[in-house]
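Long-time lurker, first post. I've been practising inverse folding by hand and with some scripts of my own, and I keep getting stuck on stretches where the structure tokens seem ambiguous. Below is the full token string for one chain I'm working on. Before anyone asks, I'm not after the true native sequence, just a reasonable design that respects the backbone. If someone could post their per-position residues I'd love to compare against what I wrote down in my notebook.
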């Protein structure tokens, strides 16, 4: 994990996996809502914002992690696919994209045999 990946909540972890298409980064609980990452301005519904505030152990580390992840998502979007499982819509979109790619790969593999 990057050296800035601090433990801002109890038990926090992130997973980075290198694939043939680039990196996948499961951001753990570094964010809870898809619009906190991927745009220059952080957007989070009030209820989720309050929950994150309640769960955080180190506010400064949590916000720093989000800032770094936001920068990563903007500056390296073609190299890294960033997602969390706290946002059901983001996770479903990610899983559906992965399933579509797997189906295409399987069709190519079958056609070449």
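-- Answer (accepted) --
I ran through it position by position. Result:
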């Amino acid at each position: 994990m990057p050296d800035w990946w601090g433990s801002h909540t109890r038990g926090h972890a992130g997973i980075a996996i290198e694939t043939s298409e680039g990196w996948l980064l499961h951001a753990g609980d570094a964010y809870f809502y898809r619009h906190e990452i991927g745009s220059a301005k952080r957007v989070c519904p009030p209820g989720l914002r309050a929950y994150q505030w309640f769960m955080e152990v180190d506010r400064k580390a949590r916000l720093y992690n989000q800032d770094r992840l936001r920068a990563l998502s903007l500056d390296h979007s073609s190299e890294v696919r960033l997602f969390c499982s706290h946002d059901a819509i983001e996770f479903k979109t990610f899983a559906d994209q992965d399933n579509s790619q797997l189906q295409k790969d399987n069709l190519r593999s079958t056609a070449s045999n």
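A couple of notes from the structure itself: The chain is about 45% helix and 10% strand. Helices lie at 46-55, 59-75, 88-112. Happy to go over any region you disagree with.
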